[in-house]
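Why predict the complex rather than its parts? Because the way molecules touch one another can change local conformation, and only a joint prediction can capture that. The input here totals 929 residues.
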Amino acid sequence: MPDQHIVRSFDKDLEAIQAKIMKMGGLVESAIHESVKSLKKRDDELAERVREADHLIDKLEEEINYDAAQVLALRQPIASDLRVVLSVMKISGNLERVGDYAKNLAKRTTLLVQMPAIDGASGAIKRMAREVERMLKDALDAYVHQDVALAEDVRARDHEVDQMYNALFREFLTFMMEDPRNITACMHLHFIAKNIERMGDHVTSIAEQVIYLVTGNMPGNDRAKLDYIAEAREAEE
Amino acid sequence: MKEVKVSARDVQVYYGENHAIKDVSVEIEDKTVTAFIGPSGCGKSTFLRCINRMNDTIDICRVEGDILLDGEDIYDPKVDPVQLRAKVGMVFQKPNPFPKSIYDNVAYGPRIHGMAASKSDLDAIVEKSLRRAALWGEVKDRLSASGTGLSGGQQQRLCIARAVATEPEVLLMDEPASALDPIATAQIEELIDELREKFAVVIVTHSMQQAARVSQKTAFFHLGNLVEYGETSQIFTNPVDPRTESYITGRIG
Amino acid sequence: MSRPRTSLFDITPRTRRRNAAEKRFRAYGIAAISIAIAVLAMLLVSIVSSGAGAFRQTYITLDVDLPEAKLDKSGTRDIAVMKKVSTFGYAPLITKALMDKLAEMGFETPLKKKQIGALVSKAAPAQLRDFVLANPDVVGTTQKFEFLASGRIDGYMKGRVTYESAEKDGKISPEQLRLVDALVADGAIVKRFNWAFLTSPDASGQRPESAGLGVAILGSLYMMLVVLLLALPIGVAASIYLEEFAKQNRWTDLIEVNIANLAAVPSIVFGILGLAIFINFAGLPQSAPIVGGLVLTLMTLPTIIISTRAALKAVPPSIREAALGVGASKMQTVIHHVLPLAAPGILTGTIIGLAQALGETAPLLLIGMVAFVKEFPDAPPEGLFDPASALPVQVYNWTQRADPGFVERASGAIIVLLLFLVIMNVAAVMLRRRFERRW
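Output of the joint prediction:
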């Protein structure tokens, strides 16, 4: 199928929106990286910068939504063009949430800096965050290259992130039971871990949007939810 | 699953040496609006005109293959095209009412096919047809006025009333709204929606948005071939053939 | 590279030259039209000036005694008996009436009886006899009659004959003119509008004053009738077939070319054709309107076919498609839809064709309509076989005669012919305007 529309300004509009997504993706990737780095290094100035940078991400999401609405109204896109616009809107929403979680992580870091460090916790968190970062990069690559196989792979890797969260959850319980003075710090760390797990879910959603964009079908709601709480809830029913 | 009204099998149409329609097979369902879309010169109008044998009037046109209406081959030598056209009505691109009164425009078809035994029967047919075309309210007080004195949208609705007056089973429409302004177009589209409760409607249109709005099934023609035929919702969100996708999204080719 | 900005108010030399050329062109057009109008005006003026006189005629009003002794010897008013008295018997009665008039006026003249009688047209006795035979009761009474004055008297009243020319003229003398003056003063001789010019038949070369167009007009009328009844249906049917039903192949192309050529064939050829086929082969009577009508039909047929085809072609194909789409057959489409819309065009073409046929002379000469016909033909259809004349032929005929009175007659006939042609063409134009439709 030829790539270009007969009306070239239509292509330009779509390219502009997609460029903004890539820019937003880059900002979010670095937000995750820097916030985790600030946690590891216990650097509250870095954390502060991450928090401030979040407003750029929010602004981009607003712009993308506005531009998408313009394209819908003025171009009446159908078939693949429509999927491009719809997926761009969903993806920007997902990215914005990931950015918010990174901001939240930085916020908690500022608090954690004032408490004694928990051994090993930040390392585990950093590994989890690295995995999510790689997933986000791959999802964005899959988006750019319209690579369904890569997107499916990203979806599968969320499983591992969920498992990492479960492991961290049990570890934090142990820490808290060992020494009640750890509870505050562990609670914050737990929330941080939970946020990173939610980031993974959003990145998975981005990968699913990529599959929808390319094939026209949303992948089924079959991704296994493996976090502990969900398991417990299902067990109760 | 709706009943099949018109069934075309391996239809070929030749204009002299030119092979204009190639191997077209399609099943048109009853009480459904089927849209034919495709670029200029792709053969959609030609194929439409085969269904009521209007192509017979062109000397160099030759049709091969089968086209069945309710299972009967319309190109069978025993079939009289005049009778066929009472069963398969047609509305044209440019509104072309007869230069007679509104009443006579609608009554002409029933008259020549002997459908009315008396004047009151004819009056009833005229009223029913004009109501079906959503025109009765606007013209009931001036049935003797000339048909050509109406506005463009009204003239087209008059042509639709004329076409449905012979109680056809299939209604063919060749770009019926292309000569009309947006409001008249919307009225015609609403009318088509009402008509499909009774007839099988086949509409050729240049506007993809119109095909998407109005039809339940869509057939995409390209260079004389039927490239894709399916549910309208599927064709316009996720077509199967890349040529279809190319055309409907406005890409080159 | 952009052009330097110029002001709209500066006119370039190129534009000036072009404007001058356009002005010159307009001037040429006006000059051409003026020349055409001038020529037309000269033509009309010359015809009208020489022909207008034909519409007025000089009459002598006299009281005529109708003695029974001379006209009805048996006294029974029996027509068969009275017919035995020929015009020679009536002529002296008129002369006597004139002499009595002069006596009454107290006019002295050296003229002899015969010369006095010569004032009255030689057609007068016949007119008197016809009247008496039609109304036998007037025998024995005295009636007032209006008789045509003789050709020379009429010429004198219209200025053709003067005292000077009368000196040299064998048919009239100045003394007779003096007599005329006296009668004019008395009121017995008047010049008034001459209906008889249009209604009475042709007269012999000696009596231009009584020559009329009656037979010619009737003959032309009959021929137009024949042309209308034959050429119109045949032409329209042929046209419809060629336009709507015939397949486009070499044969139809051949037919079309031939029809166009027929329209260009010189009319005299049709005359020869008519002579050979209708008169020699079919044995139809010479000089009859039926033959003239048939020949003119052949001539008018191509015109009607061509104009009918143009009218049919002008009906937009969308109407035909609409009719076919509703289930009309080809025949129904043509009759119900195409013909009514083409009718004004067909009518216009027919009227123009008829107008052309009205003025055709050459073929009619060949089939013998140049003969001198004095009796009116009967009503159609029998009358179509009686000998008659035709307007343009009558003009030709009269220009051949010696008596100068016929010059005026011929010009008058031309005026009548032109009038008919103008009326027909104007009717055609008006019809076309009235029915012209915008689809």
